[in-house]
Amino acid sequence: MKSILKTVKQLETTHEVLEYIENVISKIKDSEFTKNILDIDNDFVSWQKN
Known about the structure:
By secondary structure, the protein is an all-alpha fold. It has one domain. Helix content is 76%, strand content 0%. It has 3 helices and no strands. The protein has helices at residues 4-10, 14-38, 44-49. It is elongated and about 45 Å long. The two termini are 29 Å apart. The relative contact order is 0.09. The mean pLDDT is 77.
């Protein structure tokens, strides 16, 4: 996935930027939802200590 800032700079209108950001947020929410359903713990710091 490209850098979010790099992608946003390439978009021409505010509407395009807002749609892109909305899409990114949606993907984050979906992955959090899936993580919760599967009871996956993504605590990297805790994992490193083990």
